[in-house]
Amino acid sequence: MAVSLKETYELLGCIQCGRCTAGCPVGFRTYLNVRKVVYEGLTETGPRDAKGRPEAWNCTTCSNCTDRCPKGVKPMELLIGLRSAAIEKGKAMPTVRDALESTFKHGNPWGRGRDKRMEWAEDLDVPVADEGEEAPLLYFYGCTPAYETRAQDVAKSLVRVFAAAGVPYKTLGTAESDCGNEIWRLGEQGLFELLVEGNTELFRSHGVETIVTSSPHCMNTFKNEYGDLGIEALHYSQFLKELLDEGKLELPTPVEKTVTYHDPCFLGKHNEIYDEPRDVLNAVPGVTFVEFDRSRERALCCEGGGGRMWVEAVEERGERIAEIRVNDAVALGADYLVTACPFCLLTLEDAVKTSGNEGKIEVVDLSELVAMAL
Questions:
Q1: Nearest Cα to 341, choosing from 97, 148, 197, 187?
Q2: pLDDT greater than 60 at residue 43
Q3: How many degrees, rounded to 5, is the angle at CA 54 between CA 88 and CA 325?
Q4: CATH code for residues 2-88
Protein backbone atom coordinates (compact mmCIF):
# COMPACT_ATOMS: atom_id res chain seq x y z
CA MET A 1 0.00 0.00 0.00
CA ALA A 2 2.80 2.44 0.90
CA VAL A 3 4.57 2.00 -2.42
CA SER A 4 1.30 2.37 -4.29
CA LEU A 5 0.47 5.63 -2.55
CA LYS A 6 3.96 7.03 -3.17
CA GLU A 7 3.70 6.22 -6.86
CA THR A 8 0.07 7.19 -7.31
CA TYR A 9 0.31 10.57 -5.61
CA GLU A 10 4.00 11.34 -6.34
CA LEU A 11 4.58 12.06 -2.66
CA LEU A 12 8.36 12.05 -2.93
CA GLY A 13 8.11 15.47 -4.59
CA CYS A 14 7.04 16.97 -1.25
CA ILE A 15 9.64 19.33 0.24
CA GLN A 16 7.80 19.63 3.58
CA CYS A 17 7.45 23.41 3.26
CA GLY A 18 4.14 23.38 5.13
CA ARG A 19 2.19 25.62 2.74
CA CYS A 20 -0.51 22.96 2.52
CA THR A 21 -0.99 22.91 6.28
CA ALA A 22 -0.92 26.71 6.50
CA GLY A 23 -3.68 26.94 3.89
CA CYS A 24 -5.91 24.21 5.32
CA PRO A 25 -9.21 25.74 6.54
CA VAL A 26 -9.81 23.08 9.20
CA GLY A 27 -6.24 22.41 10.32
CA PHE A 28 -6.25 25.07 13.01
CA ARG A 29 -9.28 23.60 14.77
CA THR A 30 -9.06 19.87 14.11
CA TYR A 31 -6.23 17.37 14.20
CA LEU A 32 -5.76 17.42 10.42
CA ASN A 33 -2.16 18.27 9.56
CA VAL A 34 -1.81 17.95 5.79
CA ARG A 35 1.99 18.09 5.77
CA LYS A 36 2.05 15.30 8.36
CA VAL A 37 -0.40 13.25 6.28
CA VAL A 38 1.84 13.56 3.24
CA TYR A 39 4.95 12.69 5.25
CA GLU A 40 3.51 9.89 7.36
CA GLY A 41 0.36 9.00 5.49
CA LEU A 42 1.69 5.98 3.68
CA THR A 43 -0.17 3.54 5.91
CA GLU A 44 -3.60 2.05 5.45
CA THR A 45 -5.56 5.10 6.64
CA GLY A 46 -2.87 7.64 7.47
CA PRO A 47 -2.34 9.51 10.75
CA ARG A 48 -5.13 9.55 13.32
CA ASP A 49 -6.58 12.22 15.59
CA ALA A 50 -6.56 12.20 19.39
CA LYS A 51 -9.46 9.74 19.46
CA GLY A 52 -7.92 7.32 16.99
CA ARG A 53 -9.97 8.38 13.97
CA PRO A 54 -8.24 8.81 10.60
CA GLU A 55 -7.39 12.46 9.97
CA ALA A 56 -8.40 12.06 6.33
CA TRP A 57 -12.09 12.35 7.28
CA ASN A 58 -11.58 15.93 8.49
CA CYS A 59 -10.77 17.12 4.97
CA THR A 60 -13.35 19.34 3.22
CA THR A 61 -11.67 18.81 -0.20
CA CYS A 62 -11.62 22.59 -0.70
CA SER A 63 -8.36 22.21 -2.71
CA ASN A 64 -6.38 24.87 -0.83
CA CYS A 65 -3.56 22.42 -0.10
CA THR A 66 -3.23 21.32 -3.71
CA ASP A 67 -3.49 24.86 -5.05
CA ARG A 68 -0.72 26.08 -2.73
CA CYS A 69 1.79 23.28 -3.27
CA PRO A 70 4.89 24.67 -5.08
CA LYS A 71 5.96 21.20 -6.21
CA GLY A 72 2.71 20.03 -7.77
CA VAL A 73 1.93 17.42 -5.14
CA LYS A 74 -1.82 16.87 -4.70
CA PRO A 75 -2.50 16.28 -1.00
CA MET A 76 -6.27 16.45 -1.46
CA GLU A 77 -6.17 13.46 -3.78
CA LEU A 78 -4.04 11.58 -1.25
CA LEU A 79 -6.63 12.25 1.47
CA ILE A 80 -9.37 10.90 -0.80
CA GLY A 81 -7.17 7.90 -1.53
CA LEU A 82 -6.77 7.23 2.19
CA ARG A 83 -10.54 7.30 2.54
CA SER A 84 -10.83 4.82 -0.31
CA ALA A 85 -8.37 2.52 1.44
CA ALA A 86 -10.46 2.66 4.61
CA ILE A 87 -13.67 1.87 2.71
CA GLU A 88 -12.05 -1.05 0.90
CA LYS A 89 -11.16 -2.50 4.30
CA GLY A 90 -14.74 -2.02 5.56
CA LYS A 91 -13.69 0.72 7.95
CA ALA A 92 -16.05 3.49 6.88
CA MET A 93 -17.83 5.17 9.78
CA PRO A 94 -21.56 4.25 10.05
CA THR A 95 -22.86 7.61 8.77
CA VAL A 96 -20.66 7.38 5.68
CA ARG A 97 -21.63 3.75 5.12
CA ASP A 98 -25.33 4.66 5.34
CA ALA A 99 -24.93 7.52 2.85
CA LEU A 100 -23.16 5.25 0.39
CA GLU A 101 -25.73 2.48 0.75
CA SER A 102 -28.57 4.96 0.27
CA THR A 103 -26.93 6.29 -2.88
CA PHE A 104 -26.56 2.78 -4.26
CA LYS A 105 -30.17 1.82 -3.46
CA HIS A 106 -32.06 5.09 -3.91
CA GLY A 107 -29.79 7.38 -5.95
CA ASN A 108 -29.20 9.84 -3.10
CA PRO A 109 -27.17 9.97 0.14
CA TRP A 110 -30.00 11.37 2.27
CA GLY A 111 -31.69 8.04 3.00
CA ARG A 112 -34.88 8.96 1.13
CA GLY A 113 -36.76 6.95 -1.48
CA ARG A 114 -36.49 7.76 -5.16
CA ASP A 115 -40.28 8.25 -5.33
CA LYS A 116 -39.88 11.25 -2.99
CA ARG A 117 -37.35 13.03 -5.20
CA MET A 118 -39.87 15.42 -6.78
CA GLU A 119 -41.88 16.29 -3.66
CA TRP A 120 -40.27 19.74 -3.66
CA ALA A 121 -42.06 20.49 -6.94
CA GLU A 122 -45.56 19.29 -6.03
CA ASP A 123 -47.15 22.75 -6.25
CA LEU A 124 -45.03 23.93 -9.16
CA ASP A 125 -45.26 23.48 -12.91
CA VAL A 126 -41.94 21.71 -13.42
CA PRO A 127 -41.47 20.02 -16.82
CA VAL A 128 -40.27 16.42 -16.64
CA ALA A 129 -38.84 14.67 -19.69
CA ASP A 130 -40.66 11.42 -20.47
CA GLU A 131 -38.61 8.34 -21.28
CA GLY A 132 -36.75 8.94 -24.54
CA GLU A 133 -37.99 12.55 -24.82
CA GLU A 134 -35.45 15.12 -25.97
CA ALA A 135 -34.18 17.48 -23.26
CA PRO A 136 -31.49 19.69 -24.84
CA LEU A 137 -31.46 21.99 -21.79
CA LEU A 138 -31.57 19.99 -18.58
CA TYR A 139 -32.02 21.46 -15.11
CA PHE A 140 -30.24 19.07 -12.74
CA TYR A 141 -31.66 20.13 -9.39
CA GLY A 142 -29.63 17.63 -7.33
CA CYS A 143 -30.06 15.54 -4.20
CA THR A 144 -29.78 18.19 -1.50
CA PRO A 145 -32.31 20.61 -3.08
CA ALA A 146 -34.57 17.61 -3.65
CA TYR A 147 -34.63 16.26 -0.11
CA GLU A 148 -33.32 18.82 2.37
CA THR A 149 -36.16 21.17 3.36
CA ARG A 150 -34.19 24.43 3.48
CA ALA A 151 -32.29 23.69 0.27
CA GLN A 152 -35.54 22.96 -1.57
CA ASP A 153 -36.02 26.73 -1.73
CA VAL A 154 -33.07 26.89 -4.12
CA ALA A 155 -34.79 24.63 -6.66
CA LYS A 156 -38.13 26.40 -6.18
CA SER A 157 -36.53 29.81 -6.72
CA LEU A 158 -34.74 28.70 -9.87
CA VAL A 159 -37.94 27.25 -11.31
CA ARG A 160 -39.60 30.64 -10.76
CA VAL A 161 -36.70 32.44 -12.43
CA PHE A 162 -36.67 30.05 -15.40
CA ALA A 163 -40.40 30.57 -15.87
CA ALA A 164 -40.02 34.36 -15.76
CA ALA A 165 -37.27 34.18 -18.41
CA GLY A 166 -39.15 31.71 -20.61
CA VAL A 167 -36.41 29.08 -20.37
CA PRO A 168 -37.33 25.91 -22.34
CA TYR A 169 -35.84 23.43 -19.88
CA LYS A 170 -36.65 19.92 -18.72
CA THR A 171 -35.87 17.90 -15.60
CA LEU A 172 -35.42 14.17 -15.20
CA GLY A 173 -37.95 13.96 -12.38
CA THR A 174 -37.58 10.89 -10.18
CA ALA A 175 -35.17 9.35 -12.72
CA GLU A 176 -32.48 11.79 -11.62
CA SER A 177 -29.67 10.25 -9.52
CA ASP A 178 -26.81 11.58 -7.46
CA CYS A 179 -24.07 13.25 -9.52
CA GLY A 180 -21.36 11.43 -7.56
CA ASN A 181 -19.22 14.41 -6.55
CA GLU A 182 -19.37 13.70 -2.82
CA ILE A 183 -19.34 9.94 -3.37
CA TRP A 184 -15.96 10.22 -5.08
CA ARG A 185 -14.66 12.42 -2.26
CA LEU A 186 -15.91 10.02 0.38
CA GLY A 187 -13.66 7.46 -1.29
CA GLU A 188 -16.19 5.12 -2.96
CA GLN A 189 -14.68 5.06 -6.42
CA GLY A 190 -16.62 2.00 -7.59
CA LEU A 191 -19.97 3.57 -6.78
CA PHE A 192 -18.86 6.80 -8.42
CA GLU A 193 -18.09 4.92 -11.63
CA LEU A 194 -21.54 3.32 -11.54
CA LEU A 195 -23.14 6.75 -11.20
CA VAL A 196 -21.07 8.13 -14.06
CA GLU A 197 -22.09 5.24 -16.30
CA GLY A 198 -25.78 5.43 -15.39
CA ASN A 199 -26.04 9.23 -15.59
CA THR A 200 -24.14 9.43 -18.86
CA GLU A 201 -26.44 6.85 -20.45
CA LEU A 202 -29.49 8.70 -19.12
CA PHE A 203 -28.32 12.09 -20.38
CA ARG A 204 -27.58 10.73 -23.83
CA SER A 205 -30.95 8.98 -24.04
CA HIS A 206 -32.54 12.42 -23.67
CA GLY A 207 -30.23 14.22 -26.08
CA VAL A 208 -28.96 16.56 -23.37
CA GLU A 209 -26.71 19.31 -24.70
CA THR A 210 -26.46 21.62 -21.68
CA ILE A 211 -26.86 20.85 -17.97
CA VAL A 212 -27.63 23.66 -15.52
CA THR A 213 -27.05 22.66 -11.90
CA SER A 214 -28.22 24.01 -8.55
CA SER A 215 -24.98 22.96 -6.90
CA PRO A 216 -21.38 23.82 -7.75
CA HIS A 217 -20.52 20.27 -6.67
CA CYS A 218 -22.67 18.78 -9.43
CA MET A 219 -21.35 21.20 -12.01
CA ASN A 220 -17.79 20.38 -10.99
CA THR A 221 -18.12 16.64 -11.36
CA PHE A 222 -20.02 16.79 -14.68
CA LYS A 223 -17.49 19.25 -16.06
CA ASN A 224 -14.24 17.82 -14.70
CA GLU A 225 -14.75 14.19 -13.70
CA TYR A 226 -17.13 12.55 -16.20
CA GLY A 227 -14.52 12.12 -18.88
CA ASP A 228 -15.64 12.83 -22.44
CA LEU A 229 -19.24 13.60 -21.55
CA GLY A 230 -19.71 15.94 -24.51
CA ILE A 231 -22.26 18.04 -22.61
CA GLU A 232 -21.82 21.62 -21.42
CA ALA A 233 -22.16 21.84 -17.62
CA LEU A 234 -23.05 25.21 -16.09
CA HIS A 235 -23.70 26.37 -12.58
CA TYR A 236 -26.93 28.33 -12.41
CA SER A 237 -25.06 31.59 -11.69
CA GLN A 238 -23.34 31.29 -15.08
CA PHE A 239 -26.66 30.56 -16.76
CA LEU A 240 -28.45 33.46 -15.08
CA LYS A 241 -25.62 35.77 -16.15
CA GLU A 242 -26.21 34.67 -19.75
CA LEU A 243 -29.96 35.31 -19.44
CA LEU A 244 -29.31 38.79 -18.05
CA ASP A 245 -26.77 39.63 -20.75
CA GLU A 246 -29.20 38.49 -23.46
CA GLY A 247 -32.04 40.55 -22.00
CA LYS A 248 -34.16 37.45 -21.35
CA LEU A 249 -34.30 37.95 -17.59
CA GLU A 250 -35.66 41.17 -16.14
CA LEU A 251 -35.50 42.05 -12.45
CA PRO A 252 -37.91 44.94 -11.85
CA THR A 253 -38.39 44.68 -8.06
CA PRO A 254 -35.82 46.42 -5.83
CA VAL A 255 -34.34 44.47 -2.93
CA GLU A 256 -33.18 47.18 -0.54
CA LYS A 257 -30.61 45.16 1.38
CA THR A 258 -26.89 45.29 2.12
CA VAL A 259 -25.39 41.97 1.09
CA THR A 260 -22.07 40.19 1.04
CA TYR A 261 -21.15 37.09 -0.92
CA HIS A 262 -19.49 33.85 0.22
CA ASP A 263 -17.55 32.03 -2.52
CA PRO A 264 -18.32 28.29 -2.51
CA CYS A 265 -15.09 26.28 -2.86
CA PHE A 266 -16.37 24.17 -5.74
CA LEU A 267 -17.41 27.26 -7.67
CA GLY A 268 -14.37 29.39 -6.88
CA LYS A 269 -11.25 27.45 -5.93
CA HIS A 270 -12.08 24.39 -8.04
CA ASN A 271 -13.42 26.19 -11.13
CA GLU A 272 -12.36 29.85 -10.84
CA ILE A 273 -15.93 31.10 -11.20
CA TYR A 274 -15.87 34.35 -9.25
CA ASP A 275 -17.31 37.09 -11.49
CA GLU A 276 -20.60 35.58 -12.66
CA PRO A 277 -22.23 35.26 -9.21
CA ARG A 278 -21.20 38.80 -8.37
CA ASP A 279 -22.49 40.10 -11.71
CA VAL A 280 -25.86 38.46 -11.04
CA LEU A 281 -25.93 39.80 -7.50
CA ASN A 282 -25.16 43.33 -8.65
CA ALA A 283 -27.90 43.10 -11.29
CA VAL A 284 -30.50 42.92 -8.52
CA PRO A 285 -31.87 46.46 -8.12
CA GLY A 286 -31.61 48.07 -4.70
CA VAL A 287 -28.80 45.83 -3.48
CA THR A 288 -25.75 47.35 -1.80
CA PHE A 289 -22.85 44.91 -2.15
CA VAL A 290 -20.00 44.79 0.35
CA GLU A 291 -17.10 42.39 -0.18
CA PHE A 292 -15.53 40.13 2.41
CA ASP A 293 -11.84 40.83 3.04
CA ARG A 294 -11.23 37.10 2.54
CA SER A 295 -12.95 36.55 -0.78
CA ARG A 296 -12.47 34.92 -4.17
CA GLU A 297 -9.38 32.64 -4.08
CA ARG A 298 -8.77 33.72 -0.46
CA ALA A 299 -12.29 32.89 0.67
CA LEU A 300 -12.79 30.73 3.74
CA CYS A 301 -14.34 27.28 3.29
CA CYS A 302 -17.71 26.65 4.95
CA GLU A 303 -16.63 23.09 5.89
CA GLY A 304 -19.63 21.47 4.19
CA GLY A 305 -17.83 19.85 1.25
CA GLY A 306 -15.91 16.62 0.89
CA GLY A 307 -18.83 14.54 2.08
CA ARG A 308 -18.66 16.09 5.55
CA MET A 309 -22.45 16.30 5.62
CA TRP A 310 -22.32 12.56 6.28
CA VAL A 311 -19.15 12.34 8.39
CA GLU A 312 -19.57 11.92 12.14
CA ALA A 313 -18.52 14.93 14.18
CA VAL A 314 -14.75 14.91 14.64
CA GLU A 315 -12.82 16.28 17.58
CA GLU A 316 -12.69 20.03 17.17
CA ARG A 317 -11.25 23.02 18.96
CA GLY A 318 -12.05 26.67 18.55
CA GLU A 319 -14.55 28.55 16.43
CA ARG A 320 -16.11 26.90 13.38
CA ILE A 321 -15.15 28.46 10.07
CA ALA A 322 -18.80 29.00 9.17
CA GLU A 323 -19.18 30.95 12.44
CA ILE A 324 -16.17 33.09 11.55
CA ARG A 325 -17.77 33.74 8.18
CA VAL A 326 -21.07 34.77 9.77
CA ASN A 327 -19.35 37.02 12.32
CA ASP A 328 -17.38 38.71 9.55
CA ALA A 329 -20.59 39.30 7.58
CA VAL A 330 -22.27 40.84 10.62
CA ALA A 331 -19.24 43.09 11.15
CA LEU A 332 -19.62 44.29 7.55
CA GLY A 333 -23.18 45.40 8.34
CA ALA A 334 -24.72 42.95 5.87
CA ASP A 335 -28.41 42.14 6.05
CA TYR A 336 -27.95 39.07 3.84
CA LEU A 337 -25.05 36.65 3.63
CA VAL A 338 -25.46 35.34 0.10
CA THR A 339 -23.98 32.15 -1.28
CA ALA A 340 -24.62 29.92 -4.29
CA CYS A 341 -24.27 26.37 -2.97
CA PRO A 342 -26.75 24.19 -1.04
CA PHE A 343 -24.04 22.93 1.33
CA CYS A 344 -22.82 26.46 2.07
CA LEU A 345 -26.42 27.53 2.60
CA LEU A 346 -26.98 24.84 5.23
CA THR A 347 -23.69 25.23 7.09
CA LEU A 348 -23.81 29.02 7.18
CA GLU A 349 -27.44 29.07 8.29
CA ASP A 350 -26.61 26.68 11.12
CA ALA A 351 -23.67 28.92 12.05
CA VAL A 352 -25.98 31.93 12.40
CA LYS A 353 -27.69 30.05 15.22
CA THR A 354 -24.60 28.64 16.93
CA SER A 355 -22.75 31.97 16.77
CA GLY A 356 -25.62 33.84 18.46
CA ASN A 357 -26.41 35.98 15.43
CA GLU A 358 -30.07 35.08 14.94
CA GLY A 359 -32.02 38.21 14.09
CA LYS A 360 -28.86 40.03 13.01
CA ILE A 361 -28.35 38.50 9.57
CA GLU A 362 -30.00 36.07 7.14
CA VAL A 363 -28.32 33.51 4.91
CA VAL A 364 -29.80 33.64 1.40
CA ASP A 365 -29.00 31.69 -1.72
CA LEU A 366 -28.30 33.77 -4.83
CA SER A 367 -31.23 32.09 -6.57
CA GLU A 368 -33.54 33.29 -3.79
CA LEU A 369 -32.21 36.84 -4.06
CA VAL A 370 -32.87 36.86 -7.81
CA ALA A 371 -36.38 35.47 -7.28
CA MET A 372 -37.10 38.31 -4.84
CA ALA A 373 -36.42 40.77 -7.65
CA LEU A 374 -38.86 39.27 -10.17
A1: 148
A2: no
A3: 120
A4: 1.10.1060.10
